[in-house]
Amino acid sequence: MDIGGGVEESSRQVQVRFVTKLKPPYKTPPTSLAIPTNINRWRLSDIVNNILGAGVDDWQYQPFDIVIDGKYLRVSLEEFLLAKGISAERVIEIEYIKVVAPRREDISLHDDWVSAVDGSSDGYILTGCYDGLGRIWKDTGICTHILEGHTGPITSVCVIKPKVEGAFDQLVATASKDRALRLWKFDAGKSAQPKKIRAFKILKGHNAAVQSIAAEPSGEMVCSGSWDCAINLWQANGSDAGGDIVSVKKRKKGGGDEEPQSEGAVVSTLVGHTQCVSSVVWPQHETIFSASWDHSIRRWDVETGKDSLNMFCGKAINCLDIGGESSTLIAAGGSDHIIRIWDPRKPGKYDPIFQFSGHNSWISSCKWHNKSWFHLVSASYDGKVMIWDLRTAFPLGVIDSHKNKVLCADWWKDDSVISGGVDSKLCVSSGISVE
């Protein structure tokens, strides 16, 4: 086979072996072959396709990205080997993976800005809107439940301990500019018409708008960050002995019936931030992370209420997430358009280990993929959603489905990205491979 077809004969040759974690029919034979070094990633993708398609009449071309020694190839093979000091005398392993190519498929319209999304359940999408309503979407375009009760825009939502698709009594939480959190239970089964439901518990204790909410991994508690600079912890189950019972009238025609709701009290408060707590994450039972407009990221010990890590970032921080290698890396974005990633396990000065520049406005959201150490998604007021991989400084994919500011983004079903924005749209982009 003429591997070097179309390349100058004087080009240097190197021995390579193609490897992949992809399953058949995307596996090449484990043999080495000689290729010219002055080719780029697209020519290497062509070579892989030629090998895979040999003797296969109905082979459909599949674009591949190229990874060598844990880094994406973005220059010629020759330049890469020289820059990384990789000897051309040995057999070089070249890993090929599917190109990230999101398909823009589905859009669901809301009545106002879509300010919050959670895709942690494979069975449904949870959204929050500036019209004060939460919504459950079974599939894009199919709203099964409308969560009524907030008197201000919803700013944050979270699924509490996601359950398997089709299970009953799903539990979710919402936070709002009305200073309250609400907890909801619903049947995740299909519904012909959107069902309006009321919260079973109302959580009041903040003195200003609630900006962010996160659930403890076991689902027993939730925490919330607010413009009052405090982080409050709450019981999430329905048997909160400390809660008082209040009566709230149902909103239904001809109905004066009253429905009891539990009003939960604050369990404890974490104090230290001096401006809005813009984001909270609860990755482990004993640990909460928070970000603030006071330019700091903090790690809190839930038992003692003290912060064991206080990183000054120099810019207002809008969003925060914990993931990556061993679920320990901190990713954050804010007012200076840069996504920074820290490894808190490294001793000494806390300098970012990665910095990604691609957006040109405030970063509103960043979320790690829950099954990949390398991938994360970000959203920005520049109207774009970007997919990143730690192995390259450039975005793997750019989604521009929105025509205005993007306010939130998350992963869904492992291979899709969901996002919401000022254009009142929930967008789902699918077919994203992170293998």
UniProtKB/TrEMBL annotation:
<dbReference type="GO" id="GO:0000466">
    <property type="term" value="P:maturation of 5.8S rRNA from tricistronic rRNA transcript (SSU-rRNA, 5.8S rRNA, LSU-rRNA)"/>
</dbReference>
<keyword id="KW-0690">Ribosome biogenesis</keyword>
<dbReference type="InterPro" id="IPR019775">
    <property type="entry name" value="WD40_repeat_CS"/>
</dbReference>
<dbReference type="GO" id="GO:0030687">
    <property type="term" value="C:preribosome, large subunit precursor"/>
</dbReference>
<dbReference type="Pfam" id="PF00400">
    <property type="entry name" value="WD40"/>
</dbReference>
<dbReference type="GO" id="GO:0000463">
    <property type="term" value="P:maturation of LSU-rRNA from tricistronic rRNA transcript (SSU-rRNA, 5.8S rRNA, LSU-rRNA)"/>
</dbReference>
<protein>
    <recommendedName>
        <fullName>Ribosome biogenesis protein WDR12 homolog</fullName>
    </recommendedName>
</protein>
<feature type="repeat" description="WD">
    <location>
        <begin position="270"/>
        <end position="310"/>
    </location>
</feature>
<keyword id="KW-0853">WD repeat</keyword>
<keyword id="KW-0677">Repeat</keyword>
<dbReference type="InterPro" id="IPR020472">
    <property type="entry name" value="WD40_PAC1"/>
</dbReference>
<dbReference type="GO" id="GO:0005654">
    <property type="term" value="C:nucleoplasm"/>
</dbReference>
<comment type="similarity">
    <text>Belongs to the WD repeat WDR12/YTM1 family.</text>
</comment>
<dbReference type="GO" id="GO:0005730">
    <property type="term" value="C:nucleolus"/>
</dbReference>
<dbReference type="InterPro" id="IPR012972">
    <property type="entry name" value="NLE"/>
</dbReference>
<keyword id="KW-0698">rRNA processing</keyword>
<dbReference type="Pfam" id="PF08154">
    <property type="entry name" value="NLE"/>
</dbReference>
<feature type="repeat" description="WD">
    <location>
        <begin position="356"/>
        <end position="392"/>
    </location>
</feature>
<dbReference type="InterPro" id="IPR036322">
    <property type="entry name" value="WD40_repeat_dom_sf"/>
</dbReference>
<comment type="function">
    <text>Required for maturation of ribosomal RNAs and formation of the large ribosomal subunit.</text>
</comment>
<dbReference type="InterPro" id="IPR028599">
    <property type="entry name" value="WDR12/Ytm1"/>
</dbReference>
<dbReference type="GO" id="GO:0043021">
    <property type="term" value="F:ribonucleoprotein complex binding"/>
</dbReference>
<feature type="repeat" description="WD">
    <location>
        <begin position="203"/>
        <end position="235"/>
    </location>
</feature>
<dbReference type="InterPro" id="IPR001680">
    <property type="entry name" value="WD40_rpt"/>
</dbReference>
<feature type="domain" description="NLE">
    <location>
        <begin position="14"/>
        <end position="81"/>
    </location>
</feature>
<dbReference type="InterPro" id="IPR015943">
    <property type="entry name" value="WD40/YVTN_repeat-like_dom_sf"/>
</dbReference>
<feature type="repeat" description="WD">
    <location>
        <begin position="147"/>
        <end position="194"/>
    </location>
</feature>
<keyword id="KW-0539">Nucleus</keyword>
